[in-house]
Every structure is written in structure tokens, then in C-alpha cells.
Specification:
It is built from 8 helices and 5 strands. It is α+β, with helices and mostly antiparallel strands. The protein has one domain (9-175): NADH Oxidase, CATH 3.40.109. Strands 1, 2, 3, 4 and 5 form a 5-stranded antiparallel beta sheet that branches. Pfam families: Nitroreductase.
Length: 195
């Protein structure tokens, strides 16, 4: 069994993945349900929402993405082809209506909810990415400007008040992961009161 620290240490970004399953769809959905159940949200708002696209739905999403002007302008269409070749994609949203409602219920914390929502979404993204990798999938996290138009959201039955934060395409790893540079902890971690 992989420990938490091993999962964090061994997680790597994979751009090249295939459409082969490494676990059953049932196991995949169990893992993602576990993730959304236990990742915390501020004041239990549950503003984070996931949309999981598998098979043809996944391929259609990335086909649509390749037609997006922002994507072609940013010269990332080659990456889109890699994403489309995978098994599925997890889309991470933040429910802006839930955040607005929480602000009304907690007016003294009004100024914090938007950033807390982003923090919670980031925790969910990292947890899902690690969980998929522990199951044997390769994945990589992206923050493309997709599903910004209402008509695009309607195609996937996404409420207009859900804001897309990230995409996590995944599949069976094909080739080596992208190398990451490990930073010396002393450069980013300061400790006072150690003695």
C-alpha cells in the first residue's frame, strides 16, 4: 500500500497517456467519490464540483477545446492531442452561487471566501491527481481558459454559475513522466523556535 508521503513524492506529470484503463470504471469513480467526500472546504460550503468525462465524452471535450481560439492562440494544440489520447478527464469547477450564499451566511468573512474557494479547489486538484496516480494512471493538471461561454457549458450540462478552474486529463502512462526539478527545502522552508 502506498503511503501518503510516497504518493506525494512519486507523483509526476505525464503528457503522453493512452486510452487503456488501468482500473475498472467503478474503481475510478469510487476513488474520485472518496476524494470529494474527504477534501475539506471552508465552512463546509462544498463549492468544489467535479465533472468526469470518459471515453467518447472525453474525446469530444478535447476536440472542442482544439477549436477554441484561446487554445490555438497559445500554441498548445499539440498538448491537446496528447490529452485527447487518454482515458478520461476530470474537470474542476467552483460553484459561484454556493460561494455567494456562504458570504451571506458569514458576512464577517465576506472578503475571504473567494480565496478560500481557490484554496479548497487546489487541495481537491492535488488530491485527485495523487489518487489517480496511486491507482496507476498518469495525469497532468492544466488551467486552460475553457468552458467560458454559456453555450459550451450547456453542451456538458454545466450550470452557468460554475467556474472552471482546472482540467486533469489522465490515462495509462505512455513513456516517461515530465522531469521535475526538486528544490532544496532550505530555500522555501523557514523554521523558527527549533531550539
Amino acid at each position: 500500500m502506498t503511503t501518503f508521503f510516497e504518493a506525494i513524492q512519486n507523483r509526476r506529470p505525464y503528457e503522453s497517456v493512452t486510452a487503456e484503463a488501468v482500473v475498472s470504471k467503478e474503481r475510478l469513480l469510487d476513488v474520485l467519490e472518496h476524494v470529494v467526500t474527504y477534501v475539506p472546504t471552508p465552512f463546509n460550503v462544498q463549492s468544489s464540483k467535479l465533472l468526469v468525462l470518459l471515453g467518447e465524452q472525453h474525446r469530444q471535450f478535447w476536440s472542442d477545446a482544439s477549436k477554441n481560439k484561446e487554445m490555438s492562440k497559445n500554441d498548445i494544440l499539440e498538448q491537446v492531442a496528447h490529452h485527447k489520447a487518454g482515458f478520461g478527464t476530470v474537470l474542476f469547477f467552483e460553484d459561484q452561487q454556493a460561494i455567494a450564499d456562504a458570504k451571506k451566511q458569514q458576512p464577517k468573512k465576506l472578503d475571504y471566501f473567494s480565496s478560500w474557494s481557490d484554496h479548497s479547489s487546489g487541495m481537491l486538484q492535488l488530491t485527485a491527481w495523487n489518487a489517480l496516480q496511486v491507482e496507476g494512471f498518469g495525469a497532468n493538471l492544466y488551467h486552460y481558459p475553457l468552458l467560458t461561454r454559456l453555450e459550451d457549458k450547456e453542451k456538458w450540462e454545466v450550470p452557468e454559475w460554475w467556474e472552471l478552474k482546472a482540467q486533469l486529463p489522465f490515462g495509462k502512462p505512455s513513456g516517461s513522466p515530465i522531469e521535475i526539478n526538486e528544490v532544496e527545502s532550505e530555500k522555501i522552508l523557514r523554521i523558527y523556535g527549533k531550539k
